[in-house]
Specification:
Strand order of the largest sheet: 2-5-1-6
CATH topology: Alpha-Beta Plaits
Helix content: 25-40%
Number of strands: 6
Number of helices: 3
Order of helices and strands: EHEEEEHEH
Number of domains: 1
Strand content: 25-35%
Distance between the termini: 22 Å
Structural class: alpha+beta
CATH architecture: 2-Layer Sandwich
Radius of gyration: 18 Å
C-alpha cells in the first residue's frame, strides 16, 4: 500500500528552510530510504507563489495566493510504501517536525492512503489509466 504523508503549513515568502531543519529532514529521508519505504518526496513553495482554480457552475476562477489558514495548506509531502495505515502513521510520528521553530503553529502531518487502480475494478477508463501508468513508468526508467 502507498501512503502520502502531507506536511501541513505554509512557509513565509522568501524564507528558505534553515540548515538545522534541512539536516534533520535529510536524516529522516535517509531513514525512509534505508528502510526501503520511500517512493517520492518534495517541499512546496509558499502559497504566496501559488494559485487555486475554483470550479463552480461550469466556470473556472483563478485565485492567486497567498491563502489564509496556513495550517490547512500542504507545505510538502512524502510518498511511502507501507504494510498498513498503522505503519505509515509510525513513520509520520518519526518526522523531525520539532527540529525547528520554522513551522507556524503546531506542525501536522496528515496520512492518506493512495488509491491503487486495482481498487476500481474493470472499466474502459481504468484500462486507459493503466496504459498511462505504464507509459509514465517507462519515462522514469
Amino acid at each position: 500500500m502507498r501512503f502520502m504523508l502531507l506536511v501541513k503549513g505554509d512557509p513565509k515568502p522568501g524564507q528558505m528552510p534553515s540548515e538545522k531543519i534541512l539536516e534533520a529532514m535529510g536524516k529522516f529521508n535517509e531513514e525512509l530510504a534505508k528502510a526501503g519505504v520511500l517512493l517520492d518526496l518534495s517541499g512546496l513553495h509558499p502559497s504566496a507563489n501559488g494559485a487555486r482554480v475554483r470550479f463552480s457552475g461550469g466556470k473556472r476562477t483563478v485565485i492567486d495566493g497567498p491563502f489564509a489558514e496556513s495550517k490547512e495548506l500542504v507545505g510538502g509531502y512524502w510518498i511511502i510504501q507501507a504494510k498498513s495505515m498503522d505503519e505509515a502513521i509510525e513513520w509520520a510520528k518519526r518526522a523531525p517536525m520539532d527540529a525547528s521553530d520554522e513551522f507556524e503553529g503546531e506542525p501536522v502531518i496528515e496520512v492518506r492512503q493512495i488509491f491503487e487502480l486495482d481498487e476500481f475494478g474493470e472499466s474502459p477508463a481504468i484500462d486507459k489509466a493503466r496504459k498511462l501508468e505504464k507509459e509514465l513508468e517507462k519515462k522514469k526508467a
